[in-house]
Amino acid sequence: MTALLAERVSKRYGEVVALDEISLEVRRGECLALIGESGSGKTTLLRCFNRLTEPDGGRVVVDGRDAATLDPYELRRRTGYVPQDGGLLPHWRVRRNVALVPWLRREGDAAEAADRALRLVGLEPDRFGGSWPRELSGGQRQRVAVARALAARPVVVLLDEPFGALDAITRADLQTTFLTLRRELALTAVLVTHDLAEAFLLADRIGVLRAGRLEQVAPPAELRAAPATPYVEELLTRARVGR
Amino acid sequence: MSGATLLVLLALQASDVDPVVVASKPFGESYVLAEMFAQILEARGIAVDRRPGLGATEIAFRAIRTGAADVYPEYTGTGLLAILGEEPHREPAKVFDRVSREFRRRWDARWLPPLGFENTYAIAVRRETAERHRLATLSDLARSAPSLRAGLTPDFIGRPDGLPGLARAYGVRFAQVRALLPAVKYQALAAGEVDVIDGYSTDGLIARYDLVVLEDDRRFFPPYQAAALVSGRLAARRPAAVAALTELSGRLDEAMMRRLNRRLEVDREPVGRVAGDALAELGLTASTGAAPEAAERPGGESLPRYLWDRRAELLGMVRRHLLLVALSLAAAVAVALPLGLVLERLSWGAEPVVRAAGILQTLPGIALLAFMIPLLGIGVVPAVVALFLYSLYPILRNTYTGVRDAAPDAVAAGRALGMTPRQILGHIRLPLAAPVIMAGIRTAAVINVGTATLAAFIGAGGLGDPIAAGLALSDTRMILSGAIPAALLALGVDGALGAVERVVRPGG
Questions:
Q1: Which range among A50-59, B153-162, B315-324, B414-423 shows the weakest confidence by mean pLDDT?
Q2: pTM of the model
Q3: Partners of B21 in the beta sheet?
Q4: Which of A240, B211, B214, B399 is the most buried (most CB within 10 A)?
């Protein structure tokens, strides 16, 4: 079952080609990691899935329907999104932040949905629901951002380097939480990261992007065993050296 | 501007139509003469609206030309040189004929027959300077001028019958010439900052500062006559008013004028009493001391006492001041706030608009007010419009910048999670920009309270009235009686808006 599909998706910014006819499938219940250097197009591709970026060519299919025909606000409201910096609204308390999407979708039990989501990410609603974002640690804020992405029970969650700005220990904690959540909720997720170790840990398949092209898409074991291009091989070597 | 604001302004304007509007320029003699005009009109049963202390010749004359004011005291020489732009002339009667004809032809404005005294420029020095350099005449001055610093009114520096003519007639060349406003030149001379100033021959301040007037031994300065300058409208429609004003023609002489100016500028008597006594003395009104408030006021009265005695008057000015500030600020918020929000939505053109509002800020207050007279007359309306223009920039700049730069991470996340632009504006940008926007409104309000004191120069009233008059009469206490309440008002307005800011400040 296909959850997301990119068909020959292209995007240019002036002279710069950000995406060059990318075709990619994300299956239901799968976590796909997009990995690459800055400027490789991984974030641009991610943003095409909820129409934050409109492709110049090709098409994006979400849940069997052409994304271009969907209302962009509705599409975004049923797609979870976790930015790197959390992006919490500083003037809203934690519960209201997490309730954002249920509230946008005019669901009656937005606060309950928020509390459920907070419990999922390991934050006690009674203790944290009334806090201001600035009162939380970086790791807690990022947990709130994940909770916010999950509160409206989205079909797909998009994560843009969600743990990149955290210290190593906090990052490991959050990665564990994310793994547990994925399994419990059978989430479909697209995870943008520049950390190959994180991709190996969290993803079912890994897509390697370079200068707007897909070098290889494969499960971690296959990627490790049979790198398709010299670039992928180099990437693996560097990741091993770095360890 | 909202409809309600406009209605209030129109109502204020409409009440100004019926009475005869008597104006003056901001110096002692002009105040006395205008007050005499006003009192004789009132004695003849004609209602009067006093607009004393209009900014300068430019403003006062524009007010007459456009019918915003009906009469003010002017000098034929000023009419000839400053308004008609013609060469000076020695013969007072010829000058009068010339300005009468030209003013009537060009602007339908009338010079009533002269009041009777002549006035001309007087060059004055400190007594100590006169003694040290042995100065008695302008020829003596020419000899010592290279070691003396002059502080002259900008008007005098430019006029052909002023400094340029003086330099030609006597060969005067000063070590330094500084442009000083009439309000400060006497103090500057007394403090030794300059050595020579220009004044008027009938000036009371010359006596107050114990100055020596140098004799015009080559008879360079042409003598000019003072007269009532009347709008065409008044001349055509209000013959009774013109007749009442004409009763003063030929009745004042130089000695009397000097005495009246002295009472106002040296003895600091209220202008109403000085003018009232003069009219009684001339037999034009029934009795002396018509004003019961004329109880003796010792000159050494303390400032708190002075303020307390004038509390009713001051309260009225505070109210008028608040009205000017409130109307202009409300209009500026109503325009600049939505405009700032619209500009933030535009991808281009925002900066030029904000900068254009910034350029408005740099226009000199008096100039802006003068430009507005042909369009809006004098009084509250042009003052409110000018203050409105001055308030735009801080509000616009802070709204635009505040909304544009508000929490970019939160804005990006809101968008990614499906908030519409309107929701992002209403729930993220605007609440987070609120403190910045309020800071802009507070800045505008405080500037506005200060700038509103300039409104006095176009007859809009408020706390600028005692400041302008006090500056003209060199009366510190009078200046403070406007400046202190204005400062308190600025603090009060800022405090009140601070309370509003605490309410609109977002949590977190």
A1: B153-162
A2: 0.74
A3: B49
A4: B399
Q: Which string of DSSP letters, residue by residue, matches A73-120?
A: HHHHHTEEEE-TT----TTS-HHHHHTHHHHHTT-TTHHHHHHHHHHH
Residue A50 touches chain B, beta carbons under 8 Å: yes
Q: Which of A71, A123, A74 is nearest to A97 (CA)?
A: A123
**Which chain B residue shows the shortest CA-CA distance from A97?**
B414
What are the pLDDT digits (tens) for A171-186? 999 999 999 998 888 8
Give the length of chain A. Answer: 243
pLDDT tens for B364-379 read 777 777 777 778 877 8
Asked if the C-beta of A230 comes within 8 angstroms of chain B's C-beta atoms, the answer is no
The per-residue pLDDT for A81 is 96
Min Cα separation A144/chain B (Å): 13
Among A74-83, B153-162, B381-390, the least confident range: B153-162
Determine the 3-state secondary structure of A37 from DSSP.
coil
Q: Confidence class of residue B4 from pLDDT cuts 50, 70 and 90?
A: low
**pLDDT for the residue B441:** 95
Find chain B residues with C-beta within 8 A of A100's C-beta: 414, 417, 419
Output the CA–CA distances (angstroms, integers) from residue B97 to A129, B100, B235, B412, B464, in the order listed. Answer: 88, 5, 18, 76, 37
Which one is predicted more confidently, A21 or B81?
A21
Q: Burial code of A207-226, b = ≥16 C-beta within 10 A, e = fewer?
A: bbbbbbbbbbbbebeebbee
Instruction: Select the residue from B415, B417, B428 to test the A interface by mutation, using most A Cβ atoms within 10 A.
Output: B417
* A81 phi, psi to nearest 5 deg: -145, 130
Chain A interface includes B286 (CB < 8 A): no
Task: Look at residue A242 and tell me whether its pLDDT is greater than 50.
Answer: no
A93 in reach of chain B (CB within 8 A):
yes
Cβ distance A93 to B415 less than 8 Å, yes or no, reads: no
Give the C-alpha separation, B494 to B498, whole Å: 6
Q: Do B407 and A89 touch (CB under 8 A)?
A: yes
For B57-120, the DSSP string reads: HHHHHHHHHTTS-SEEEEEHHHIIIIIS-----S-HHHHHHHHHHHHHHHH--EEPSP-S-EE-
